[in-house]
Fold:
Amino acid sequence: MARTLRFLSYAMGFACAAIGLLHLLAGNAIVPGATDAGPTVDSLNRFLGAVFAGYGLAWLWTARQRPIPPAPVRALAGLFLLGALGRILSLAVAGRPNWFQLVLLAIELALPPVYFALATADTRAAARAAQATPAGRARPGATLS
Structure:
């Protein structure tokens, strides 16, 4: 479970950072159905691309922690779920978007519960490892200070 959390956290981080950078660099050209949306939407898209890249970097920072702390995992997964709720609101107010946006919505609804369930996996694994280590003996790979 801890390895799954680490893998998914890195995958989310790299994917979001890459997607954000694509939006920052390509603007409306990267959004299905928005190529002629105009400069206001292009400006918004590029700004939000930078924010989404930062969101990806936050996932990568979280994934690099040993053990992965549950609070940032829950917060980042909650933000992802909030984005899905925004898409649902848009669906209700503005209507059906491009099919690809519906695929993204499905992903955004499916992943947060997985992250919520796995949020404590790495800290639990670290606690089990610490309990299994005999008192007074350093764990393999541990450094003495």
